[in-house]
Amino acid sequence: MSLTEHIGQTTILTVARIADFGYFLTDGNEDVLLHKNQAQQELAEGDEVEVFLFTDSQGRISASMTIPELSVGTYAWVKVTDTNPKIGVFLNIGLPKDILLGADDLPAHQSVWPNEGDMVYITLRVNRSNLLYARLASDQVIQSISIDATRKDFNKNIQGHIYRTAKVGSWVYTIEGFKGFIHESQRMVEPRLGQKVEGRIIDVKEDGTINVSLLARKEESQDLDSAHIYEYLMSRNGAMPYNDKSMPEDIQERFGLSKGAFKRALGKLMKEGKIYQEGSWTYAKKD
Q1: Where are the beta strands (DSSP E) in 93-224?
Q2: Which domains does the chain have, with CATH numbers?
Q3: C-alpha dihedral over 187, 191, 195, 199, to 10 degrees?
Q4: Which burial class, exposed, middle or buried, applies to 93 when counting CB atoms under 10 A from its CB (0-12, 13-18, 19+)?
């Protein structure tokens, strides 16, 4: 087997000779350079060393004693380091050269491409030019590493990373190892691929997968709504031309809330003694 067939994998090679800039390793037929900045210790001729083979920026096979968590055929969560709208995103797997996750393997809409710092679950592939690149894990691969949720997990808060996106919803893999789906109605905005999200389990299905909502719980939502309304009220010196009899379309346009949510938030502020209503206006109570 040639060294080319080991690109993206670990192999054991022997130090054939030493140069000022590194070590030439051999499998008995071919040599490959282990640059000094990729060697973790001093080596001598004849030493056997485990290395990871990759292609450098010139397309040459190179070796590293830094062994990534993944290889061709294995998977790991890795961090996004940069985004190029024309070609894709770059990932840090521990090598001197970041790995490309190409545009063809990313969502059609760049608005949900990963940002720097997001995490994606990938494996490695080698193309016809012997260049190493990343490939997203399929839904079946995620299924193979997931664990089943139970009815006891219903309504629990979760955190996880988005591993697939679509118009109808987003798919998430949680820290616990659950595989979940977020319907478009259960999110305010569409999360990015690789984005870390927080939500709650709203259903546990028979196959052990979960449905997740990213929307605030009712009491949390009411707190946010009332804070938003009060902030607007104070920005108008404590008076606004809206009350619980205002038209639903006016409320929606100004606050982005349904009339029901608006009335609940007003009721909360009144109960807390922060506001009162006169006519069609709402006023902040002065201390």
Answers
A1: 99-102, 119-126, 132-136, 157-166, 169-174, 179-183, 196-204, 210-213
A2: 3-64 (2.40.50.330), 76-137 (2.40.50.140), 146-213 (2.40.50.140), 218-284 (1.10.10.10)
A3: 0
A4: buried
What is d(CA 175, CA 168) in angstroms, rounded to the nearest whole number? 23
Which residue type, as a one-letter code, is found at position 236?
Answer: R
Q: Whats the size of the chain, residue-wise?
A: 287
* Cβ(159)–Cβ(197) below 8 Å: yes
At 214-271, the pLDDT tens digits run: 987 666 666 778 888 888 898 889 999 999 899 989 988 888 888 888 998 899 899 9
Structure token digits, residue 26: 């051999």
Provide the pairing of β-strand 179-183 with 210-213.
parallel
The SS3 assignment for 246 reads coil
Per-residue pLDDT of 79-98, as tens digits, reads: 999 999 999 999 999 887 89
What's this model's pTM, rounded to 2 decimal places? 0.74
What is the C-alpha R_g of the chain? 28
Residue 86 burial by Cβ neighbours in a 10 Å radius (0-12, 13-18, 19+) = exposed
CA distances from residue 148 to 56, 94, 177, 238, 281 in whole angstroms, order as listed: 41, 32, 8, 52, 53
Sheet arrangement for strand 119-126 = 99-102, 88-92, 76-84, 119-126, 132-136
